Amino acid sequence: MPNPDTDYNHGMGHGYEHSFIDPVTRTYFFHQVCNKTVPLQRYNIDTQFWTPVAVPLPTTSYSSGCYTTLVYLPELKAIFYTDLGGAYLLYDNTTKWVTVAAEGSLPMGGYHFTSSYSPVHKVLIFGGGNGGRQMYKLDASAKVTPIKTPPFDIGVNASVLTVDPVSGNFLAFTGNSEFYIYSVTTDTWLLKAAGSSVPIWNSGGYNNPIFGVVATPVSNFGVTMFVTTNGPNAFRVFLYKN
Question: Does residue 169 contact residue 190 with C-beta atoms inside 8 Å?
Answer without folding.
Answer: no
